[in-house]
Amino acid sequence: MTAFSILDLCPIVEGGTASDALASTRLMAKQAEDAGFTRFWLAEHHGMKGIASAATALVIAEAGHATSTIRIGSGGIMLPNHAPLVIAEQFGTLEALFPGRVDLGLGRAPGTDMNTARALRRNLETGANSFPDDIVELQYYLGDPHENMLLAVPGAGSHVPLWILGSSIYSAHLAAALGLPYAFASHFAPDMLHEALDIYRSKFTPSAQLDAPYVMAAAMGVMADTDAEAAYLFTTLQQTFVNMRRNARGKMPKPIDTMDGFWNDMEKIAVEHTLRYAIVGGPETATAKMRDFIDATKADEIMISMPIHSVEARLKSVDLFGKMRASL
């Protein structure tokens, strides 16, 4: 049975606050655990009015305190923003708090605009280029301690499992070379999905962490009792992507009755292309779309992001996806 997991952005919705967003994330984590999901991950973003997970390790800890068994982690930490030692200490601390439950997904994008990235990064010019070396350095800090080693405390000896996140063939080559599990961001960057998965699987080299390829594919997901209700809730994400194209980012918008009149023809084509793998619908429709996505990717695990304005509808969507998985 294909594993299901959740990627949460800790969204700040129109009419809500960051405190509300954090409270909703705790509820989401508990609902995901109750519904049988494998992981609950949070993503690092900065300077975005609609996302409250900038201090990602802190929010992951909140998810950990709200649950007891589900794996928690990052999807991902944008490693070029940080010194590897700092991340080793943060995730070593999480592993000490929640033993055997922590994942460390790593990406090389800044997760923000370049001015904010410049304020975050110790050396912006070398950040993305040093990504492979930073991963190896991070593995060193999380590995077994030895004499004269620079120690991450907590962190040393924790062996927190690493994941490579990506949306290109670069990340596929890197994950394969390092022998790490690979999560592809097809929920917002679908174009290279199949080529990247083929490269990763064909070039995979076993490692101390993983002896065979392991693929996670991501999809946006909105489930409700009916197709019409799910389509209505999905307009929140469609508006968000149009607003991003217009450089008018803000809090997560409320759903609207129709996108007609909101987007123009070019925006509609672009957004529908970007979101073509979204799993949206009532139980029957969404299940058929999920089967198609699993058949096409042969993914070991599906990571679902649920961009729904109402936390009550978000929690119901989690429950419906959990029931779907049991029926597949």
Question: How would you sum up this structure, described in words?
Answer:
The chain is α/β, with parallel strands linked by helices and 328 residues long. It has twelve helices and nine strands. It has one domain (3-327): Alpha-Beta Barrel (TIM Barrel). Strands 1-2-3-4-5-6-7-9 form an eight-stranded parallel barrel, surrounded by nine helices. Strand 5, helix 7 (169-178) and strand 6 form a beta-alpha-beta unit. The chain is globular.
C-alpha Rg (nearest Å): 19 Å
The global form is globular
Q: What's the SSE pattern? A: EHEHEHEHHHEHEHEHHEHEH
What kind of sheet is the major sheet? 8 strands, parallel, barrel
What's the helix and strand layout?
Blueprint: E1 3-8, H1 18-34, E2 39-42, H2 56-65, E3 71-78, H3 84-97, E4 102-107, H4 114-120, H5 124-127, H6 131-142, E5 162-166, H7 169-178, E6 182-184, H8 193-203, E7 215-223, H9 227-245, H10 265-274, E8 279-281, H11 283-297, E9 301-305, H12 311-327
Parallel strand pairs: 1-2, 1-9, 2-3, 3-4, 4-5, 5-6, 6-7, 7-8, 7-9
Give the gist of this structure:
The protein is α/β, with parallel strands linked by helices. It has 12 helices and 9 strands. The chain has one domain: TIM Barrel.
Features:
single chain; eight-stranded parallel barrel; 328 residues; 45% helix; TIM Barrel; alpha/beta; 9 strands; globular
